[in-house]
């Protein structure tokens, strides 16, 4: 009962929410909850046997040969349910599974029964001077060969027995060493369990306290409701409002550009009209003077007549080409545009921008009361969580657990000296068994040493030396002790073999491959009324699917104990962290947010009327084709610079004199006219061209453009006045989802932390591993199995050693009689 209570209380420490909360997508800004405080566990539930591990593997291989069958789950289940033997064939299956152990044990028992009996008969036989008891040795030609073979075989058998003794001694000493060092491992497990108990409440407090991170982020967004919600509303409305205002502002700029263009047209036309009149007069004057020069008598000379005629014929080209005097004026349009510009349309549009950009401030002012209610709800959530947490009897439960743990530790510490004392007795007993074999080996080795060193091949059997005779006596002493000790040794081997081998095959191997847990998880096995025994102990509900294998595997992976044991079936503290009831209050508060944006005026009626006046200013009535026709013409019919250059070239063809000089003077005069009058006129024409083309582009469908701008502004204003509520509701919903998303993040983080970090149950798996895998299997079973393996092998090789020792002793001992051959007989 105490164990069950301890387990239940341990499980309680890791309990948390059980329902899966929906994940908000797309997620809001990720919150940083930090890392759950956790200390590192010290216990490493893994045993490395070292060099003796090679012997353990050899023993495991031998046991596989003896028992290669798979783990008998069905037989174990029937045995646990006390149904073994109810079904026909159960005993046959058990015998089939244990046949290797049965045959081996039978051979051992046969050894135990027959060897003392054979020893007794052998002793009686020798007393009757039979079985080698007669102190007489017949001479044989191959005597030396036989003696060497018997000595070699005995030496090899003794070596094999020595290896077995060393294996048994190593296993015996290994077990003692591990028992002595087990105290440190046990203390490490208790230390980890204390850490487990002490850290769990701190971890739970950390999870609860991290609600403040969620609350602070939500309060931050609430305090910045203008930049957050107001900006979102502004961005959604701005998709229509800003293009409309931008179009109106662009139109205001077009009005200013139109005025500048009209002014440029008016000035340029006036400049061109005056300039072309003055240019026409100057060109006429130049033609007159050229004509007078060409009428000079020098042009009648044969060498100049042709050139003068060519120049005379080209004088008609010295005339203006473009006529700007007939172009219509734009003074009326300019006057109307000046009237339009008396109202600063750009300023009116900027007021619309400013009013729209005040949306966040309007949101702040109109949500101040509701936000205070939401903040109160958030504060109440934190207070309720703290109150609920304090109401849980976690500290009392942990204190009780700590008391049980401390008592268990004290109990173990008190019994450790007793365990070490009994282990010393065990070690001493096993050492005595090894010493029995060592004693036999000593006699064999001394017999071999004395017999080999003291043997004189020239001595007859009756005259052998004392050392050789002593060697033979040692060998017979070894034989005698072999008969005395071998059956005792074999009894120990059989008992430890059957026990240790079955522990390895029925406990250690199934534990390693988890077949043992599958047996324990068999429905109605440990309790005929409970389907799942572990669930019945913890939850008093055996129908919950909770298995030993799953719990052990999860704890092995250091998962949280809440996840490992499905504690949602026992402790439902969803009220602590399932904040849906609170988020509903927050959602209702946020949904009640009402924002009125009717005060925002994008463009008043004066601005709209100003746009209409601009569209009716008459710039679309300007005769742009007339302007463009004259603009596309050149100022003069001929390029004056080309004409002057040509005139100067022809003058060079005339004879040197006054005519040549006069013509070159006229050429320079024409160049001066081009630079002083034609070039400025061309610049004025370029300005006029740009202005006319700008006015043409602006006037193209001007009325339609203005109406479109006004329609866009009206649509945006209508959206703000009539449909903004839908946008506000939509953005308020997104804003609410963002706030609630913080709580969903907190819930998901808590769930993940509880699953993987809080009350990580690695110490529980370590305790099981320490008790079964390390203590029972690695320390005890492997050492015991290696001990009987070495001891049994040595005992088996005592039989050939006895035979070879008896045979060999005949060649070392001093005989009472020997075969004697007379010389006459030999000669015959």
UniProtKB/TrEMBL annotation:
GO terms for molecular function: cholesterol binding. Keywords: Glycoprotein, Membrane, Signal, Transmembrane, Transmembrane helix. The chain crosses the membrane at residues 99-128, 149-171, 424-453, 474-498, 787-806. GO terms for biological process: camera-type eye photoreceptor cell differentiation; photoreceptor cell maintenance. Residues 1-18 form the signal peptide. Pfam families: Prominin. It is a multi-pass membrane protein. It is found in: Cell projection, Microvillus membrane. InterPro entries: Prominin. The keyword Glycoprotein applies. One of its GO terms (cellular component) is cell surface. It comes from the Eukaryota. Its main location: membrane. The keyword Mitochondrion does not apply. Belongs to the prominin family. This is Prominin-1 isoform X9. It comes from Geospiza fortis (Medium ground-finch). The gene is PROM1.
